[in-house]
Amino acid sequence: MTRFLLSGANGFVGQALGRSLVANGHWVTGLVRHSGGCPDGVAEWLHATPDFVGIADAWPAGLAPDVVVHLAARVHVMNDNSSDPDQAFRATNLHGTLRLAEAAKQNGVRRFVYVSSIKAVAEDDAGRPLREDDPAHAEDAYGRSKLAAERELISFGRSNALDVVIVRPPLVYGPNVQANFLRLMDAIARGIPMPLGAVRARRSMVFVGNLVDALMHCATDPRASGQCFHVADDEDQTVAELVRSIGTHLHRPARLFDVPVAWLRLAGHITGRSAQIDRLIGSLQVDTSRLRQTLDWKPPYTADEGLAETVNWYQSTRSSHS
């Protein structure tokens, strides 16, 4: 049994990870800013101060985890209204992360698993799946804050004998998913036509069940020590293939029509939505061979199984509200 402290335990990935850790016999405390939402069996530690300010002084007596899995973050948003997005993201994703790492080290934590993002590296793959050692070219405030946190954590870990493991997922989907993936399922369910039939670029994604399994390996396997890993499903789909797959599981026809990719880019430029369009039509594949080879890891779910589970959840929530 390993003792875990899980930040963001009441979030999308945190809930799934907490349930899996408990089911596997581990002891889990969830560090959250808002009370409620932790899975059964996860003890709640409420620390409401933004950016983990005062976390070391607030550390509960007797709390002695072996591993911290740090999921809590200021997440990427499409339209950020902050006057200084870089500062806002760094306050949480960099400075808050370092506060938690320092407090963890002071309280005997051996391993700190940092859930970063592929956006710390790049927004596209330039024709080859992204590897962990590729030069990083983070393009927005969120990605830059994640990259800065990775670098500072590695430095802190080396100076303070804290074992830091970094995990970079691409887009995560699964039951309870929100944001763009949920809006995509809504659009397909409503039969809205989409001009994406001509998009051939492939994008890596990861089902939350596969990410959780990888995080458990990264948290407990001695071979993960000091490593950075990319994680994704076993299959990368084009957005058109993704829409068709979701439509199949929804028993709804995918209403796709072809528009040249150049026209889509032009529309994005004209409407000020170039970033959103690029995320639909650009190629972003990740190389997961380091994770597979170092930890003998393979995704426990196929991409189709992950989509089926996600759609089943979606249909159950919609039927309960009808």
Distance between the termini: 43 Å
Mind telling me the CATH superfamily name of the domain at 3-173 and 205-233 and 285-301?
NAD(P)-binding Rossmann-like Domain
Using the 3D structure, state the CATH architecture of the domain at 3-173 and 205-233 and 285-301: 3-Layer(aba) Sandwich
Supply the number of helical segments. 11
Q: Enumerate the strands of the largest sheet in spatial order, edge to edge or round the barrel.
A: 3-2-1-4-5-6-10
Order of helices and strands: EHEEHEHEHEEHEEHEEHHHHH
* Rg, nearest Å: 20 Å
The major sheet is characterized as:
7 strands, parallel
As residue ranges, the low-confidence spans are none
So what's the CATH class of the domain at 3-173 and 205-233 and 285-301?
Answer: Alpha Beta
- How many DSSP E strands? 11
Work out the helicity level: 40-55%
CATH topology assignment of the domain at 3-173 and 205-233 and 285-301: Rossmann fold
Shape: globular
- SS content category: alpha/beta
Residue fraction in strands: 5-15%
| Average pLDDT score | 94
Pfam family, one: Epimerase
Protein name: Epimerase/dehydratase
Domain NAD-dependent epimerase/dehydratase: 5-225
InterPro entries: Epimerase_deHydtase, Lipid_A_modif_metabolic_enz, NAD(P)-bd_dom_sf
